[in-house]
Amino acid sequence: MLRIAVPNKGSLSEVASQMLAEAGYSGRRDSRQLVHTDARNGVEFFYLRPRDIATYVGSGALDVGITGRDLLLDSGSSAHEIDHLEFGDSTFRFASPAGGEISEIAHLEGRRVATSYPRLVDDFLQTHGVTAELVKLDGAVESSVRLGVADAVADVVSTGATLRAAGLEIFGPVILESTAVLISGEQRHPGIDRLLRRLRGVLVARKFVMVEYDLPADQLELAAEVAGGVESPTVSPLKDDAWVAVRVMIPADSANDVMDRLYELGARAILVTAIHAARL
Ligand SMILES: Nc1ncnc2c1ncn2[C@@H]1O[C@H](COP(=O)(O)OP(=O)(O)OP(=O)(O)O)[C@@H](O)[C@H]1O
Ligand SMILES: O=P(O)(O)OC[C@H]1O[C@H](OP(=O)(O)OP(=O)(O)O)[C@H](O)[C@@H]1O
Ligand SMILES: [Mg+2]
User: Fold this and answer.
1) In sequence order, what are the beta bridge partners of 155?
2) pTM of the model as a whole
3) Is the C-beta atom of 50 inside 6 A of ligand 1?
4) Right CATH number for 208-274 from 3.30.70.120, 3.30.830.10, 3.40.50.720, 1.10.150.120?
5) ipTM score of the complex?
6) Ligand 1 mean position to 198 CA, how many Å?
7) Which of 91, 93, 67, 92 is nearest to 81 (CA)?
8) What are the tens digits of pLDDT across the range 41-51?
9) Cα–Cα distance between 197 and 232 in angstroms, integer?
10) Whose C-alpha lies nearest to ligand 2, atom 5?
11) Which end of the chain is least crowded, N or C, by CB within 10 Å?
């Protein structure tokens, strides 16, 4: 049985569970359940705090987990990234009061920096030769400056709205680009490959759509240049042998452009449909 750690709360939790559901796994029925067995797929899910997941996976207690790259690095765990999962993107940045006297990393020397990620920040400051006093907080770090317990913060930034609302401004280099990652310990459980194939399949299904259209047969070469598919388009005969039906997978974000170009080549009855699952 493959033992999988899944975030039980926070920004990664819902998307991770949704992705596993799309990958064909059954999940817990209510948000207080800590363990769920999906016997049909031979996996057991452990719903844990995102911050603790690297610890469980690194120690070998669990085989694989979904967490944030920032949390993995901050944990000091020996778990490593197998793949990134294309959600939970954020950057980790320093910020200080807008227009204030701290505007570069050297200004942090001897100052108080509030963060929920002390190891990550400490490692970064050390490589930049800066010694600061770290103030460890659990969350809502942006309020620490206004409340007088810190001079600057180092925190997760996504839209930047939370920083702005607290009167703070980003400064200094990017500490880390983070994203949701699949992590494993030293022993790679053989079941991980199937999980990974399924998760990659979900990502492909989200990124691609299926286009089907009717086309004058003599335009086939040009249409294949517009949309070539993974191997090559599927071409089926129509009753009228001057026409063919074509089926091809294309990136979802190019769908309207591709439809316009196919129409200009004479394609008609162009239909675009979602893909629910895929293995490439
Ligand atoms: N606004 C956000 N946008 C994108 N990713 C985010 C955002 N906030 C946090 N994350 C990412 O989510 C992961 C876990 O952080 P999160 O804040 O969800 O957990 P937590 O702080 O432990 O939980 P909680 O906030 O519920 O106490 C981290 O990898 C972080 O980079
Ligand atoms: O740049 P933004 O889009 O504003 O998002 C960033 C904020 O989101 C997260 O907070 P979260 O909601 O997890 O609360 P927390 O600080 O209590 O962890 C993070 O810690 C930042 O505070
Ligand atoms: Mg948080």
Assistant:
1) 93
2) 0.89
3) yes
4) 3.30.70.120
5) 0.94
6) 24
7) 67
8) 999 999 999 99
9) 22
10) 158
11) C
